[in-house]
Design a protein that fits this description.
transport; mainly alpha; copper ion transmembrane transporter activity; Cop_transporter; 4 strands; membrane; Copper transport protein
Length: 203
């Protein structure tokens, strides 16, 4: 199907074929899809940009240096996770110590537990010695209060950890085999070094 646009006297008429226009659009879309599919496979090109076109290894030595940088960055990511876990444990210990400070006019914790209607009297046996204890189950999660000395530092640490994680993710998304293996090697080395300090569930 074709259509003709008639112009005024002295102007040339323009004729456009719908089939040709559709064919051009299909060709552009197929070309972009094929280009996108090419980016979704692993490749081993040394001259793979990292984070910017200015950071493109032009030699084997530059490529090796880039891979070493990614290994170190992945190790730093594991160190940050371990450091955050250690700091969180210290903050929790400090919070627990602050919670049990005795104050005048306050009922001792032992009396509060004995008078709690949810307390259940049980017998604790250890190495042949029996002792009567009261067990109170906590049904609701307790939210720790916001503290100026803790929460801003936690927010900064989380931001740095997420930023480093996204940098590693962008390196993997280049689909370069060397970059991908370097990130995995850094995670392996970092986990071997400080993995025991990281909390369960950290990635």
């Amino acid at each position: 199907m074709s259509y003709t646009l008639f112009q005024r006297h002295g102007e040339a008429a323009t004729t456009t074929t719908t089939a040709d226009a559709m064919g051009n659009m299909d060709g552009m879309s197929n070309g972009s899809m094929s280009g996108g599919m090419m980016m979704m496979v692993f490749q081993t090109e040394n001259a793979t940009p990292l984070y910017s076109n200015a950071w493109t290894p032009r030699s084997t030595g530059a490529y090796a240096a880039t891979c070493i940088f990614l290994v170190v960055l992945a190790v730093v990511a594991r160190l940050l996770l371990a450091g955050r876990s250690i700091v969180e444990a210290r903050w929790l210990d400090r919070e627990m110590q602050r919670r049990y400070i005795a104050a005048n006019g306050k009922i001792p914790l032992s009396e509060q537990i004995m008078t709690d209607p949810k307390a259940q009297q049980m017998t604790l046996t250890a190495n042949g010695v029996e002792e009567t204890v009261f067990v109170v189950a906590r049904h609701n999660a307790q939210v720790r209060p916001w503290r100026f000395s803790v929460d801003p530092l936690r927010a900064v640490m989380d931001t740095v950890i997420v930023g480093v994680g996204y940098l590693l993710m962008l390196a993997v998304m280049t689909m370069n085999v060397g970059y991908f293996l370097s990130v995995l090697a850094g995670v392996l080395v970092g986990s071997l070094a400080v993995g025991r300090f990281s909390s369960v569930g950290d990635h």
